[in-house]
Every structure is written in structure tokens, then in C-alpha cells.
Amino acid sequence: MKRRFSLNTEAVFKTLILLGFSAFLFWFVKSNNIVYYINPRFVRLTEAAAVLIFLMFLVQAGNSFRWTSVVHSCLCHSGHSHNKLALLPFVVTLMMAFLLPNNALDASMAFNKGMNLSTRPTTSGQPGLTVTVPGNVPTTQTNNNNSNSQGYLPQEQNPMQAKIDELHKTSLINVTEDNFSLVTNEVNMYPEQYAGKEITMIGFVLKEQKFTTDQFGLVRYVITCCSADAMPDGFMCEYKNASNFREGDWLNIRGTIQLGKYEGNTIPVIRITAFSKAQEPQNPYIYPKF
């Protein structure tokens, strides 16, 4: 029986697909476009996946050439064509990954998701309450210096409590990318404690049907894991000429926190005293750190 050195075309297709996915992931990380889709803390995992796929490519490349008998080659030729068609979805996915533009989520998506003003917990301002922070990690505000029976850390060992104490003491809250989620959660949950304080922040305009003409939301997308769980978070704002703002406009505002009502709930409302148009940040997303 004759044997010959032949090219396994199916293995070649698989090799090229693996090389394409590995190259795409490497490019995705190096170009920093990956931040449009996942939390940066997962970038290392993506790099590891790219390396793993590259190793699979090397193994598959070794299977692209083989010794086959002439008879076996003839019998299997028709079956190989069906196997190649099964690879088509991977080819289409890879082409879309390279060709589709990488854009941040816009205001239209935020309008569909809506702000979660009406789903905030009721507020009382009493110490010892459980606070929900990004990542759904329960933390208790308590004045005890020792761990309580539920196993919560004492204040001096709780890094978030130090940030909250700082918010309580300051008269001007400067919202940054680092403290955005902490400020929005704390102020929205306990607006009575922050009423009268000044606040500065940057975000984009979000308008909802239930808002009056002088109201709008100033929000940013918060991504815990990936863009699929992105939620617009921020504050309701009031300004007499708010109708001049277009949805999606980026603003840098300064105002005073006041108490307001939304669907029967007490919420903080920022009464704007000054604002300026702003450019969309290079990375418009917020990634919770607490």
C-alpha cells in the first residue's frame, strides 16, 4: 500500500482559526480596546487565554501534515468537506471581531436600562445598618471597635469606612473615577446625611419620561464584570435650563445636594450652581474598587 506525505486541509483551517483568535486577543489587550468590554481586573485572564490558544495553535499546526494511504485519502475526502462547514461559525465570529468598530456604550443604551432611583433602599441614617456596595459585598457601619458576632470587620480595619468618614467630614464632595461608586451608593442610600453639601462630578446627560423639563440624570456606566452588566449610575439633577441639554452631552457640574422625591422615595437631588461642557473621557466607564 502506497503512503504519501499530505496536507490535512481541515487541520490547516483549525490552525488558522486558532492563530486568528490568539492574535485578536493579544491585539485587543495591547490596543486597550478591551476596556470597552470587561473590567480591567480580568485583563490578565484574557492574556492567559491568548497564550493558551497560541499553544493550541502550535499543537494543531503539527497535525496539519501527515502520512496517509492513497485509499484512506480517497474514502475520507467527502467527509472532510462537511467538517469544514462546521468551522464556518468560528470564521464568521473572527471576522466580526476584527471588522466591527469598538465603541463605548452610548446614551441610547442608558435610556433603555434607565436609572435605578426608584429601587434604592429606604433611608434612615441610623448606624449599624448593612450597606450594599459594588460587588454585592455586605458591610456594616458600626461604632464597635471589635468584630461583632456576625463577623464584620471593625471600623479601623475597614478601608471603606475610612472613605465614608471622609465624606461625612468634607463640605465639598469631589466625585472621581476612584470614588464614584462609593459616593453614589452612600449618598443615594443616606441622602439626609449629605443634604446641604456641595458636590462636583462629570457624567453624561440621561433624560427619562418621568423627569420634568428642569430635571435630568447625570450618570456614568458602572461595569462590575463586563459590558453586559453595565448600568447607568449617578444622580438626578435640577437646572432651570435643563431643556437645553441634549441626551448624551457630557457635563462637568458643581451643585448642592438637596432632598427630593421620586416615585414616593426620598432621593438626593443635585441643584446645579455651575456647569461646563466636557469631553467624553478616554475610558468613560467606572469600575468599582470596593
Automatic annotation (TrEMBL):
Keywords: Membrane, Transmembrane, Transmembrane helix. Pfam families: DUF1980, DUF1980_C. Residues 13-116, 156-288 form the DUF1980 domain. The chain crosses the membrane at residues 12-30, 42-65, 85-105. NCBIfam families: TIGR03943 family putative permease subunit. This is TIGR03943 family protein.
